Amino acid sequence: MYDVKSMKAEEFISDEEIRETLAYADENCENLELVDALLKKAEARKGLNHREASVLLACQDPERIQRMYRLAEQIKKDFYGNRIVMFAPLYLSDYCVNGCVYCPYHAGNRLIARKKLSQEEIRREVIALQDMGHKRLAIEAGEDPVNNPIEYILESIKTIYSIQHKNGAIRRVNVNIAATTVEDYRKLKEAGIGTYILFQETYHKESYEKLHPTGPKHNYAWHTEAMDRAMEGGIDDVGLGVLFGLEMYRYEFAGLLMHAEHLEAVHGVGPHTISVPRVKRAEGIDPSAFDNGISDDIFAKICALIRICVPYTGMIISTRESQAVREKVIRLGVSQISGASRTSVGGYAEEEPEDECSEQFDVSDKRTLDEVVRWLMDLGYIPSFCTACYREGRTGDRFMSLCKSGQIQNCCHPNALMTLKEYLMDYASAETREVGEKLIQAELANIPRERTREICAEHLKQIEEGQRDFRF
Ligand code: SF4
Ligand code: SF4
Predict the structure, then answer these.
(1) Which among 310, 265, 303 has a CA at the least distance from the CA of 45?
(2) How far, in Å, from the CA of 113 to the mean position of ligand 2?
(3) CATH number for 297
(4) Which residues line ligand 1 (CB under 6 A)?
(5) CA of residue 385 to ligand 2 center, whole Å
(6) Tens digit of pLDDT for each residue in 356-384?
(7) Confidence class of residue 215 from pLDDT cuts 50, 70 and 90?
């Protein structure tokens, strides 16, 4: 029985409700009167629920699809402006006891090299990341109570935050580790993590169990209820995601929105971010073995609809996607991207020898951070290295209320300019710096509040004089 407030996975992600939703969407996808009414509702920036959103996803009318894209672009502009927040993944360990059939780290894969970074190796990785200009990391580790216990993760977070190298510092560590206990989530909160990220992979329970045949992750309820435990443990920024390609995308899309609605209904805060990964090739993994792959057009439509349905939730896209796909979906609502990512354990400090592969997936976008930053600026975006909200305690409902008040623009925009300025001063090539300086001067005028604009201009000068780390 579907109950958005239930704490049981099978009730807040009810299979019956999803099936009824998909049937409702099929019945109504050509009901253009309803589609128009839903688009009108979405234009009021109040979001749409999973049933409404599923009708739009099923709608094939070309004119309405163009309206969806235009609306997504407008919402993106209104809420996120032209800023794109940058981050990088940091793989700590590929030891894993689970059997996820789509991931090369699964316990039975003998083709990859198993590695776990020591604290000294983490230092080297972090310095390499700082030398590129990164300020925000997402740490990743397989599930392995012996090799990667929570103590190892906590120690690694402490190490990462402690490293000050030249003008560099990692100011926000997001964590992507397996579902765990309330007690462990509390420890992660105390360690000062930003967002806790856990991809659901698939909301379809039967498929989920087949795709995760062995290991603790096989337990669908334990995995699906993890965000509730994280929130109980005090983590109020959580990141959802499904791995598109494993199951029918329409099923996943409805499940994803139901999960967001559940978090909002129970905890008063929806997800902080949604990630939209697609299954990719990796050592021992062939994506064509999964027959639910989605085209670039459907992928773009999903991104646009997420933007429309949960306007206050950030959307993340990784280097799994090519430059061309990233360019398309950034316009439609993506607010955070990774740059210059290495998806192998220890890949930043040293190139992996060919016979020692530990990549979790093939990176499609292989450009350097400098190239990605310049590309974004050439497209009219402001690459932002901002981490201010988390450091000012603006998380969970405090973050959401600031967003909803419309005042977040007075924080995000100047913070983007100041962190970009730091990047240009400390890490950029001469060519990128030149493009960036012009962009900053032009964008300064777009800070809504006059006083904020003046303070920002002052801080930009101070950054030139060598000071760092200003924020609103
Ligand atoms: S997806 Fe995560 S849990 Fe599954 S095998 Fe890969 S690292 Fe392990
Ligand atoms: S001010 Fe907050 S919401 Fe805006 S970019 Fe910075 S951290 Fe993100």
Answers:
(1) 310
(2) 37
(3) 3.20.20.70
(4) 96, 98, 100, 103, 105-106, 142-143, 178, 217
(5) 9
(6) 788 888 898 999 999 999 999 999 999 99
(7) very high
